[in-house]
Structure formats: structure tokens, C-alpha cells
Amino acid sequence: MELTAIVESLLFATQEPLPLTQMATAVKETAKDIKEAANDPAEIPSYVEALLAVDELSIREAIDSLIAHYEKDGRAFTIAERPHGWRLCAKADYAEWCRALFPGKKVQRLSQPALETLAIIAYRQPITKAGIEAVRGVSVDAMVQQLVDRGLIKIEGRAELPGKPLLYGTTESFLDHFAVKNLDELPNSQELRRVKLPTAPEEQPGNAAPEETQLSLEPQPQAESGEADAAPEAADAPAAE
Question: Are 226 and 139 in contact (CB under 8 A)?
């Protein structure tokens, strides 16, 4: 029994991402059970000993082999790595067809101001609301609340600054939405993190700011941002899974 076939069956059997460690453990424990259940050593299948030595590297090689096989055969699906592991998913080319199975779920679209706000948070997190406003030059109250409601950002704590302003960062849903396993996979992540950005006056040494109140974590009705740069909705999730 080939390891690639076993790994494929594990990924097919669950909708949740599987870490390499979990798959390796499942393979080894099953092989151990088969060996212990045999009454005669001659009854132990020849593949069992090899599976008892499976490790994370072996699982990763099996995944790479499956991905190459799917590409060669022109399959509509592949194996993608997510923040918590690997999973089978449809390719982005077939996203619209897959959405037809879930008519009640509308694609979440973000306006240009929301995308800009999200980008600043993603590349410079953790960051305060005042820090975001210093870069954008406009109030971001509505945009930040919208991103919190959609589960794309979360409150990370409070900054060690006068007034203890809230700090915001991205969530695991953000990584899944944009099909990246970590923040380092964002375009030009290293370069954009080093770019010098404007600083909020209240975050400069010697300037005090009133304590910031926490935004509601409960979904709120869509609010008018009042921003002059509001744009038509854009940015779909890149792939259907």
C-alpha cells in the first residue's frame, strides 16, 4: 500500500486542514495496530514496517507527489497548505462553479477603502487606529469596524502608549480568505514592512491621547464611511474550497 494513496485518503476524509504531524501519527498508529493484531509474523503485510517509520518529511513528499500528479492529469482540484495544515480544495479557476452549490452564501466583497485599511494592518500589525489614520489621512472607524465584523482583523491588545490605544492585527480567517499560510507569503512583505510610514501625533513621544474605547465585536449594520475615496466593491476570495 503506497503512502501517497494513504495520505490522499486522509485528506479526502476530512474537510478540516490536516497538519503533517497529525497525518504521520495516523499512519504510524494504524501500521502499529495492524502489526499487533497479526497472530503470526508471516501475516503482517510487507508495507507495515515501512509505514512505521513514516515522518513529516515523508508525508510532505507524498503531498508533493500528489500535487504533481493532479497537475499532470489536469485535475480541477489540488492540495493547498493553510495556517493549520493541508487540505484538498478546488482550484481558483472553478470558484464560480463551486459557489453555485451554496446560493445562500454571498461572496464577501471589500470596498477600496476597506482594502487599503486591511493592507495597512496586514503589513504593519500590530497597529493602532491612529496609526492607520496617519497613513490613510482619513478616519477609519467604519472600515475597522467592518473588518472586525467580517472576522478579518481582531484586537491584539493595547499599545504601551499614552491612552493605551487598541492594537489591531489580522486573523486566521484573513489568511484563509487570501489563500496564504502566513504573513510572509503576502506580496513584497519584507520590503513593505520596512517602508517608513507617517506617525500619528499622539503616538509620538511626549504627546498624550485620550484612552480609546473598544469597538463592538458584535456585527453592526453597514455604516457609511463618509470617505471621499469610497470605491465600488472589489476583492473576492481567491479560491473556492
Answer: yes
